[in-house]
Structure formats: structure tokens, C-alpha cells
Amino acid sequence: TIVPMADFGVNSVVKYNAMRVMTTALPNLQQITICRLSNGHKYSDGEDPDEEMATAFAHFTTHDINIISNFRKLRRLNIHGGYGLNGRYPTLFNFPLLE
Questions:
Q1: How far apart are CA 28 and CA 99, in angstroms?
Q2: Rg of the chain (C-alpha set)
Q3: CB-based burial label for 62 (10 Å; 0-12, 13-18, 19+)
Q4: Strand, coil or helix: 95
Q5: Cα 38 from chain centroid?
Q6: Mean pLDDT for each consecutive 10-residue tract of the chain (99 residues)?
């Protein structure tokens, strides 16, 4: 079943946890928006992260951004501002249907 093009925005830890559940419940989600998480939380560092930034935010609770790769029918991935992203994330661009 393909999920209609409805935007789901991840802008808090609560929504991140909902997204984590949705990777199993709605793996055919087609659109998602990634925003800054709550204060004291960040997404996992990518490949080749900026070491200074990694050190500055090392005490933040880390959440795995790569779970997005479970949405195999993803057509649109919006990343607002790149808040909390540090490094390269090749898995975020490995979607055959991504526009």
C-alpha cells in the first residue's frame, strides 16, 4: 500500500519516535521533512563529521537519522536548515524515487 503524499514533519523527539514506529507501520511513506530536534538532542553524526562540532554537541542525546532509509518509496525528503546534521549522509540520498 502506497501512502498518499502527505507531509510528515520531524521537529521534536516525540515526532522522531513516531517516525521510528512509522518505518515499520508505514514503510511506503512518500514524503518527510526533517527539522531541528528539541534542545539537547541531535541526529547521529554522518561520515567525516566536523570534529569541532562533534565535540561541542557530544553531550546531546543522539538519534539515528539513517532510519529514514527504511522508507523505500520516499519521493520527497525536505531538510530544513540541516540543524543537528554533521557530516555526509549517503543513505539519505539512496532512494530510487527521490525527486
A1: 15
A2: 13
A3: middle
A4: coil
A5: 14
A6: 75 94 89 90 93 93 92 88 83 78
